[in-house]
Amino acid sequence: MTSTTTRLLRLLSLLQDRTYTGRELAERTGVTDRTLRQDIARLRELGYPVHAERGPVGGYRLGQGKTMPPLLLDDDEAVAVAVAIGVAEDGSTGLAEIDRNAARALAKIEQILPKRLQHKVIALRTATEIGPADTGSVEPEAPVPAETLATIAAAIRSGRALDADNARVEPYRLISWQRRWYLVAYSLETHAWQALPVANLDRVTTGTHHFAPRALPDTDLVAFVLREIATAGWKVHAKVTVLESAETVIARINPTVGVVEPVDATRCVLHTGADTLETIAVYLSMLMMDFRVDDPPELVAHIRTLAARYAAAVD
């Protein structure tokens, strides 16, 4: 028979998940209905606001109270919170009180994390850099399984090659930008540096090959990834002549929008990309500069359609 403390912790963990009927909770904790009611009363005495709802869809749930009681986190939740707080601490919010509290919260979590979870947190934190947050991207999110990130981070930390979709790479850094993840890696197939979108990798496993660190493609790997995204990381690409100097355009855009090549004092060529032609059209309108689309023809057709629609809207 489990101890009262163990049973209460199990009950609290369940209540943090969703609403349960009394019968469900009694079965999951292996007690009678009477013992369940006693356990609910004990949690309330400890400051946990356990609410009871009547009716056909009623049950017990954990609600809001007047104080902040301790919470229980499972392994994945604990790792996620520790990494997220660590990233926030590294970036600094600029608010002294919040930064201090974040550091305190992280210290508390790291103090009680089991060794196996500490290794995951340390690997993810040391292997990750954060891209700029103020780029105004409208691209959709690209979720990545936590286990995939953990596998990559562990390989980076141990200096072991990865088999990524049957291609062997040496992993060097994870870059998180706009809720997307990229892996800076050296391809043993093409012998070139790459910024791989992690969401596009179907299978990632740790290989047996240990590698010696190579000279990096850039001292700033975030900048390297942003340049790669601008030139090759999107599903569709465009070449646009902008009727302004290269200096003016560069000052107007962020590095992920594209690569700018000067033509003369009044013109430059912008190589840009996105996941859809519609997004490129939005980017170009946000430039607030005159431009001419050189390629692809599909983007020219799309902008003509938009132009006709806008013209009709103000007639």
TrEMBL record:
Location of the Helix-turn-helix type domain: 7-61
PROSITE patterns attached to this UniProt entry: HTH_DEOR_1 (PS00894)
SUPFAM superfamilies: Winged helix' DNA-binding domain (SSF46785)
Residue ranges of every copy of the WYL domain listed in the record: 148-204
GO terms of molecular function: DNA binding; DNA-binding transcription factor activity
Superkingdom of the source species: Bacteria
InterPro entries recorded: CBASS_pafABC_assoc_protein, HTH_11, Tscrpt_reg_HTH_DeoR_CS, WCX_dom, WH-like_DNA-bd_sf, WH_DNA-bd_sf, WYL_dom
Gene3D superfamilies: Winged helix-like DNA-binding domain superfamily/Winged helix DNA-binding domain
UniProt name for this protein: WYL domain-containing protein
Species whose genome carries this gene: Nocardia stercoris
